[in-house]
Amino acid sequence: MKPPFETIVTQHGPTVLRVCRVVLSPHDAEDAWSETFLAAMRAYPELPASANVEAWLVTIAHRKAIDVVRADRRRPVPVGHVPEEARGDGVAGSDDAGVWAAVANLPDKQRQAIAYHYVAGLPYAEIARILGGTADAARRAAADGMKTLRRTYPGTTPEGENR
């Protein structure tokens, strides 16, 4: 028997929010988080009891994040002046905005592979299902991203790197 949906939100909500915050801006991440759980709530009754709920939620969050990125790329943003550089990374508990800024500069697949593996703790096979492709390609994207981070931001070692 599946647990109530509220339990799913309580148990996996923080992980989904962290993933969204790494992939998107803090404001967009909260919107994507909400959209993720709205979509999940609608689909939850049909989810098999044996499903990996965390991977399922990260998959939904990934799709919602892609929707936000695509919408942002289509939306022109007129500005009267150059805005100040944003401070912080939006990742709760982080005291090092520089590393997250470096992550934000990675290509999409590398950034997403790092977020899903190092932040959400998903195995590469699950990441491959989310991003499309193979587990080896997901592993390569994460490795390439880490190589770039080590080169551009010395001392970069996200939690769980040795997984």
UniProtKB/TrEMBL annotation:
SUPFAM superfamilies documented for this protein:
Sigma2 domain of RNA polymerase sigma factors, Sigma3 and sigma4 domains of RNA polymerase sigma factors
Please give the name of this protein. Answer: RNA polymerase sigma factor
NCBIfam families listed in its UniProt record: sigma70-ECF (TIGR02937)
Q: Which organism is it from?
A: Nocardia thailandica
Known InterPro entries for this protein?
Answer: RNA_pol_sigma-70-like, RNA_pol_sigma-70_dom, RNA_pol_sigma70_r2, RNA_pol_sigma70_r4_t2, RNA_pol_sigma_r2, RNA_pol_sigma_r3/r4-like, WH-like_DNA-bd_sf
Residue stretches making up the RNA polymerase sigma-70 region domain: 9-75
- The region annotated as signal peptide is none
Domain RNA polymerase sigma factor 70 region 4 type, by residue range, is 100-149
User: What top-level branch of life does the organism fall under?
Assistant: Bacteria
> Is this entry keyworded DNA-binding?
yes
Give UniProt keywords alphabetically. DNA-binding, Sigma factor, Transcription, Transcription regulation
Q: Which family does it belong to?
A: Belongs to the sigma-70 factor family. ECF subfamily.
